[in-house]
Amino acid sequence: MDYQNIIEEVYYYVLEEENVGAKPTYIPELAQVDEHKFGVYFYSLNKRRFGIGDYQERFSIQSIAKVLSTTLAYSILGDRLWERVSVEPSGTSFNSLVQLESDNGIPRNPLINSGAIVVCDILLSTLENAEEDFIEFVRDLANDHSIDYSQRVAQSEKSVGYRNFALCYYIKSLGNIVNDPIKVLDFYFKLCSVELSCEQLAYVFSFLANDGIRLHDREPVLTDTFTKRINAIMQTCGFYDESGEFAFKVGLPGKSGVGGGIVAIMPNQYSIAVWSPKLNAKGNSYRGMKFLEAFTQQTRTSIF
After folding, report:
1. pLDDT digits (tens, 9 = 90+) for 218-244
2. CA 21 to each of CA 247, 254, 263, 271: distance values in angstroms, whole numbers, following the listed order
3. pLDDT digits (tens, 9 = 90+) for 260-285
4. How far apart are CA 167 and CA 236, in angstroms?
5. Would the annotation count 258 as a binding residue?
């Protein structure tokens, strides 16, 4: 299949259409990003690769990092992880508090804010230096040791992160946060500030298309069973209360972030990353969603 030609056609089709949506102005640093940026990078397991647009420019991956923190925690704890966080779609917005009381402080899944905060708490309790160990984990996945947190973005998020403070303290009151909430939140804000390009992001997630094995050194990150479960969580929970819509229109496991990034994988075939900062009403990249819907229609790829 001529993926390059299809990507070019879909990219220019989406580029010419109206760029609907808005940047997440509630995070000051993200409000400064050029809303016209648009990049795509495709990485196949047989080493075919192609980028177009702003695919080499780094951006804040935000909630996409939650897949990676969950992966790291899962690789250490195994199924004990699910004692602290569930694997059900939430059906609510990413920063909702409404289900926590009825669920006794157990977040519905690790890809909403409350779930990612609990995973941060787990990593802080499990690793000697969680912040450094996590960023090293991402660097190893990318085979690129220039990757880092953005202190500027992390501080910007902390300055307005009242809802996340509320989530963390509320979960603490219900007994599912062990560490000091300020320490947990500092790690959480750093986690969301990791900056990657579309090119780096597509490669970082390629292990999830490859039965949990890193491509550059053939080292296993997860077992094939654990990999399928992470992919299942992305499929059902990766887009908050638009996850069903993404499954319906795109049909791939994926994850979005309010920085405008989306990454998706086709098991045993490819990973693909898209970045466009303007978000739709559900907090997902408008152009990113539109591109991936057209891309999977043209390539006839889907897990279904």
Report:
1. 999 999 999 999 999 999 999 988 999
2. 21, 20, 19, 25
3. 999 999 999 999 999 999 999 999 99
4. 22
5. yes
* Maximum separation of any 2 CA atoms in the chain, in Å: 54
Q: Is 243 annotated as a binding residue?
A: no
**Alpha helical stretches, state H, the chain:** 3-16, 65-77, 113-126, 130-142, 151-159, 162-173, 181-193, 198-204, 206-209, 224-237, 243-249, 286-299
Annotated binding-site residue? 157: yes
Q: Kindly report the number of other CB atoms within 10 A of residue 49's CB atom.
A: 15
DSSP per-residue string spanning 8-67: HHHHHHHHHS---SB--TTSTTGGGS-TT--EEEEEETTS-EEEEESTTS-EE-GGGHHH
The reply, when asked if residue 129 is annotated as ligand binding, is: no
- 88 carries a ligand binding annotation: no
- The answer to pTM > 0.90 is yes
188 is in an annotated binding site: yes
Binding residue per annotation — 240?
yes
